[in-house]
Amino acid sequence: MRAGYDVRVADAVAVTRDVSPALAACELTHLARAPIDLDRARAQHGAYEVAIADAGYRVERLPADPGMPDCVFVEDIAIVVPEIAIVTRPGAASRRGETPAVAAAMSRYRTVRNIEAPGTLDGGDVLIAGHRVFVGISSRTTPPGAAQLRRLLEPYGYDVTEVSVRGCLHLKSAATAVAEDLLLINPEWVDATVLDRLDHVTVDPREPSAANALRLRDRVIFPSAFPRTAERLEARGLRLVTVDASELAKAEGAVTCCCVLVDVSPQA
Ligand code: CIR
Known about the structure:
Layout: E1 12-17, H1 38-54, E2 58-62, E3 78-80, E4 84-87, H2 99-106, E5 111-114, E6 126-129, E7 132-137, H3 143-153, E8 159-164, H4 171-174, E9 175-179, E10 182-185, H5 192-195, E11 200-202, E12 214-215, E13 220-223, H6 227-235, E14 240-243, H7 246-249, E15 260-263
Parallel strand pairs: 1-2, 4-5, 7-8, 10-11, 13-14
Antiparallel strand pairs: 1-15, 3-4, 6-7, 9-10, 12-13
The structure holds citrulline.
């Protein structure tokens, strides 16, 4: 077991959103459209929520909007730090209507700030590792969007660094934090010269999509589709809980993108 785990998990909330009945019309950037079994997607999403609840988080599920195919991917809509929540202006115009419901949920826990036009930014492009924040410049997040994020976070002591992303949707398709001081990276999809200054594990090359892991306080939620990379993480002492996320993966979703974690403990 790695040092530094805090297993006191009370007072943590995971905001999720139901799978939209319109999911088949989701945005796609790198994948060809494939049939999605909505019932199976909902069952897998429910099991994912149970895995998060088992870790001691209170899951707060927002209702789906039938007019918003991608609304289950709440991560793209809000970024939360102990001091504020930032509601994004998503890069895909079809997703901008997702923001009011998520903003309302965030306003119960944090002062809400917004990314404003013309900047765009998806939460999937924002990787937070302590007070280091990496923001991916991608097909969804523009330099003006990243600059707004910097202006909002720097007053609280965060160091915001832009990272270019290639070959994948978001920065967090290519790199996620699996512990306070440990990243999981696919170096093919991200400028690793920025990220590899931090201690990191690389994905197994046969599992390029394996860099997205959801770090909870005492465990990591990880897709069952990537057993070789899972072995690498377990070898670093991480406790993994695997979930089948195959249906939402057809919509280019992964495990970080279906929740926004909010620490509501008094010290937050
Ligand atoms: C989209 O293209 O916006 C959705 N179909 C998938 C978003 C996945 N979000 C994420 O990885 N943060």
